[in-house]
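Honest question from a wet-lab person: if I give you the sequences of every part of a complex, can you actually get the arrangement of the whole thing, not just the pieces? Trying it with mine:
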Amino acid sequence: MSVLINVENLGKAFRTYPSASQRIRSWIGLPTHGIKDLWVLRHLNFQVYAGEAVGLVGENGAGKSTLLKMIAGTLAPTEGRVQLLGEVRAILELGMGFNGEFTGRENARHGLSMMGMSAEEAEALLPEVEAFAEVGEYFDRPLRTYSSGMQMRVTFAVATARRPQVLIVDEALAVGDAYFQHKSFEKIREMQQAGTTLLIVSHDRGAIQRICDRVILLENGQVSREGDPEAIMDYYNAMLANKGNQKHKVESEQLDDGRIATTSGTGEATIHSVSLHSAETGEPIEIATVGQELELRVQLHIHEAIDQLVVGYVIKDRLRQDVFGTNTHHLDQVLDNVQAGQAPCYRFRFNCNLGEGSYSFSVAAHADDTHVRHNYHWKDLACTFEVVNANKKRFLGVAWVPPTLVIEQSAPQTGDAQ
Amino acid sequence: MIQRAIPVARYWWSYRFFVHSAIRNDLRARYARSKLGLLWALVQPLAMVLIYTLILSHLLSAKLPATNTVYAYPIYLMSGMLGWTLFSEALMRGLGIFVEQGELIKKVAFPRALLPVIAFGSATINGAALLSMMLAVFLFLGHWPDIHYLWLPVLIVLALWLGLSIGLLFGLMNVFFRDIHQAVPVVLQFLFWLTPIVYALPMLPPDYHGYFAWNPVAKLTAAFQDVILYQSNPAEWHLLMLGGIALAFTILSAGLYLRVKHELADHL
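Yes, you can. This is the full assembly:
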């Protein structure tokens, strides 16, 4: 695989000057003092290979957008460099360089020229842009009469009119109505399949996991982790929970099957064991059949006295998308004033109304209705199991929602060809 | 060197339609939704000419030396105004370019050097429109063009280049110190009255004439007056000097740009 983006010791600092005169001195090359560099990003090194889809995640202010802008070329690095070995197109923020007085068509034409296209190339692409934007006759009306969603459609259509070698997308997936969101997501995916390399910043975990081969986590202006999307996203979510709590630790471990499981928490209570059993026989199982009654057993150890204890779990599918989740807060069984040394065992019983495939449990013990504020222990991939369809009719999807069917036969109507 | 320059040149060349499209958009955006469009570019200087002519014409026309038309003063005024308008508009254009195009600079990757090219292009078209409308007025006044008018394209380019290069330097500074955008029009107003446009130098006491030698814009407007009103060649070495000043400001602007480009977008 060839490298398309090579980021070498990249750094960006926002420079502050103690006074205007110091700034002017720096212009004319006189010695200066008191200039401070506030580093937003520093010592970044990574490569993006041809055909890859890379996600960039990190908290607000981690430097994601700054990094994308430097790669796209709109922001100059303070040190290091970005080498681009292909045509790069960036959708950083929508509505770039458009003028409200001009029609959608005129703006689209100008937008295409801004990508370095000739008049003929732009003219040839305009019908496609018009068709993709789906703003109807508004395409020939001034942009100022558009709704923001319509402007977004035109911008997106322009930005993706010609498939670039590298497409950089900053949060653009989350704009517009659901229909267009879906459509633009599909367009990005199509480009990826046709060979476009993607670099995406998004807070949408689902989008990242569906599209990315690799995720880079930025933390405090540096690449803190990179690798498999599921593992990095698990780690990132655990990191987000309980920000600022000194005791809160996040760890990742590699399981026997090569997958990476993240655990995190402050440790007042720990999840000792998680196992799945047949509710009927009590035997531990790894393969369940559709509709079978199951029992999830969660054994906790309490190490310090805690005011409130909530235990919850999420069933996740193969792509680690949430399928179902609940906790004892929602089940109205919160334990109060739990003492050190206790070892409660939780048994959750449910019917396995799941489609065929492989699933996992993420289990957590925390204080409130969510794990975000105070998380004692969170464990991803705490237990995995397989669902097979042994005795039900064939069906599709991750949920088993069997219908009953009635077909009503009415007398054929005459004169109605439809 | 050449090996590095070729891909850069090719990259810039690929943006020719962008330059074309941006110039056209710029001209259209200025007069969007106005019925008279480009004519408005003429109204402002013409109104000024009209006012001064009405007020001052009779007082001054007798004193304008070496002219043979009754409309000498309005023509003197208009030719000076033409030079001044081209210069000051190009300067204001350069001054505002970085801040006005801030969104574009922050969000879209394209060769930044094209921004002054676009500004120069649209100012040239504006200037040409202004010139042709003024020529129509001259014809109406019975002042016919002669061979010396061939100097006009040179003078127009010079006026625009001088204005733009000074404007770009202050425009770059303005990104960091926004007071500059407020201060420059005030300075320009003083400069306008320190330049013999409304009045003629011979009307002033000879003691003051020396000061005007320090005003390069006075040499520019004098060149326009020479060519249009007096129908003679402008002082070539004045033009060379103006070209030298414009070149110096161009180099200064480019140098400052290279120095601040890594933090330019952060301040837009």
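Two things worth pointing out. The domain at 249-388 of chain A is CATH 2.70.50.60 (Coagulation Factor XIII; Chain A, domain 1). The longest strand of chain A covers residues 3-16.
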